[in-house]
């Protein structure tokens, strides 16, 4: 088994580049980073009402069902990280185990999905902060100012170092999860005591097809994938984690398990607080509305605080992991080599971080100022779950291919390395196919655009940057 950390491909006449800081954070902090990237409060705010309607209130079993293959895939990440712990993660794993061209496309899907998810969170940051202050949340320029200021602050933290990032993530996570879980428990009690206007809990809540069998399982599962996605952030900082081969993979599995519990409890606890009609009418901001119904204006402001912290946390993680994705890929010269540079003072990919920060600011400004662009980007946000599912299944497939000699070595490896990852991959393939089939034309074109952009970048990497990655030798584990 190899233990190869990629920092940069040396170029003749140049001194070796500075490495990222090793052993900077622990497994617990890495787990919080993975959970922060999933952004539980934001994800629930975006999905809660739609998932309740799509599943006919059978959302709890849907989340658990989606979580099982996610746990299997997280375990595949764990095994792959034991093989090669580097920031490129799935990009390199798929490229070295299956095919370098497919590896590049996997890396591109990682970048595209993470960037889209980051912007989808940033655009709701301004309204969340303004709601805390009781100011009109639809004012464009205050939203732009708040979003820009927060991105700049998070960019500074990302450049200064992973230690500061981890500490800030833990602090924000503790407050966010405490508020979210407390309100969910409050909401569950509210429903169980049969307050007027609540939706009573029935047997249908614990069925995959929901109340009366009216739930759309495939559509609901896509919402669940969107909610849970993002836990893989633990492996993009693996070069900076203590015991970098073991802990990032363990952190991924733990993050998925905790997210399943949190999402299931919070979805069940909050979805029945108000009537279906009122929940649908406030589908774009259900958490603040539900908090208002539970405890009035002060409760609504507390929930808005949790939303704001969730957005800030996920945006901070997005800058960090996207910079490391670029760094990992640039180390193989499939992206401009400058993105693979590490700042000698802070031991972070500062240039890549600044590039990501500037992209987030620019896209946020355009999104908030140009309605036509906003509509187009909304279509991208709607397919981000498909993008996550796509590179997750490619990563799981690379684990099967890399460890293929062990599948038939014993029953235990046959199950863990072969049968379970194959079943999880099949599940995600089904989700992707059903989602694309049911998607409106605008979303299909968005997917085509993402893939086409990746193909153009891949050709540029191959023929303009002349990356040696495309001639890399394929590898597999011994028995």
Care to describe what's here?
The structure is a single chain. The chain is globular. It contains 19 helices and no strands. The chain has a domain at 27-111 and 169-310 and 364-471: Amino acid/polyamine transporter I (Up-down Bundle). The longest helix has 45 residues, at 286-330. Helix 4 (90-97) runs antiparallel to helix 5 (100-122) and helix 7 (140-160) runs antiparallel to helix 14 (350-369). Residues 1-16 have low confidence and may be disordered. The chain has 479 residues and is mainly alpha-helical.
Which SSEs are present, and which pair or pack?
Elements (H helix, E strand, L loop, with lengths): L26 H12 L1 H15 L4 H25 L6 H8 L2 H23 L2 H9 L6 H21 L1 H31 L24 H12 L4 H4 L10 H25 L4 H6 L4 H45 L19 H20 L1 H12 L1 H19 L1 H4 L3 H28 L2 H23 L16
**Helix content class:** over 70%
How many separate helices?
A: 19
In angstroms, what is the radius of gyration? 22 Å
CATH superfamily of the domain at 27-111 and 169-310 and 364-471: Amino acid/polyamine transporter I
Order of helices and strands: HHHHHHHHHHHHHHHHHHH
Kindly report the average pLDDT value: 90
Strand content: under 5%
Summarize the structure.
It is built from 19 helices and no strands. The protein is mainly α.
Feature tags:
479 residues; 71% helix; disordered N terminus; Amino acid/polyamine transporter I; 0% strand; mainly alpha; 19 helices
């Amino acid at each position: 088994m190899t233990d190869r950390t990629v920092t940069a491909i040396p170029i003749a006449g140049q001194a070796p580049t500075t490495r990222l800081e090793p052993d900077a954070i622990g497994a617990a902090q890495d787990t919080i980073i993975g959970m922060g990237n999933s952004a539980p409060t934001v994800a629930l705010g975006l999905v809660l009402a739609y998932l309740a309607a799509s599943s006919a209130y059978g959302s709890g079993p849907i989340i658990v069902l989606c979580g099982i293959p996610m746990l299997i895939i997280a375990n595949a990440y764990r095994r792959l990280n034991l093989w090669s712990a580097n920031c490129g993660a799935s990009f390199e794993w798929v490229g070295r185990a299956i095919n370098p061209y497919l590896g590049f496309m996997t890396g591109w899907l990682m970048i595209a999905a993470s960037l889209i998810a980051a912007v989808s969170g940033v655009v709701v940051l301004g309204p969340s902060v303004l709601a805390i202050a009781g100011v009109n949340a639809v004012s464009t320029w205050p939203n732009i100012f708040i979003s820009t200021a927060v991105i700049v602050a998070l960019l500074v933290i990302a450049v200064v170092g992973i230690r500061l990032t981890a500490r800030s993530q833990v602090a924000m996570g503790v407050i966010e999860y405490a508020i979210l879980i407390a309100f969910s428990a409050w909401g569950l009690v509210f429903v169980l005591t049969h307050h007027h206007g609540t939706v009573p809990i029935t047997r249908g809540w614990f069925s995959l097809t929901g109340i009366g069998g009216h739930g759309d399982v495939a559509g609901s599962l896509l919402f669940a994938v969107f909610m849970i996605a993002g836990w893989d952030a633990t492996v993009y900082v693996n070069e900076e984690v203590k015991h970098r081969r073991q802990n990032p993979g363990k952190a991924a599995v733990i993050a998925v398990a905790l997210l399943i519990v949190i999402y299931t409890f919070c979805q069940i606890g909050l979805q029945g607080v108000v009537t279906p009609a009122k929940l649908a009418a406030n589908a774009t901001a259900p958490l603040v509305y539900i908090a208002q119904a539970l405890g009035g204006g002060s409760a609504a402001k507390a929930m808005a605080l949790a939303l704001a912290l969730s957005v800030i946390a996920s945006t901070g993680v997005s800058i960090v992991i996207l910079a490391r994705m670029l760094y990992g890929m640039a180390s193989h010269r499939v992206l401009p080599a400058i993105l693979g540079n590490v700042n000698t003072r802070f031991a972070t990919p500062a240039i890549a971080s600044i590039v990501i920060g500037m992209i987030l600011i620019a896209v946020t400004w355009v999104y908030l100022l140009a309605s036509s662009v906003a509509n187009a980007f909304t279509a991208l946000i709607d397919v981000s779950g498909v993008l996550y599912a796509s590179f997750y299944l490619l990563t799981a497939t690379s684990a099967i291919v890399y460890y293929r000699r062990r599948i038939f070595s014993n029953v235990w490896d046959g199950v863990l390395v072969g049968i379970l990852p194959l079943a999880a991959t099949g599940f995600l393939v089904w989700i992707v196919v059903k989602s694309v089939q049911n998607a409106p034309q605008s979303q299909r074109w968005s997917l085509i655009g993402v893939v086409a952009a990746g193909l153009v970048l891949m050709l540029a990497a191959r023929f303009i940057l002349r990356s040696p990655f495309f001639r890399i030798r394929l590898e597999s584990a011994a028995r």
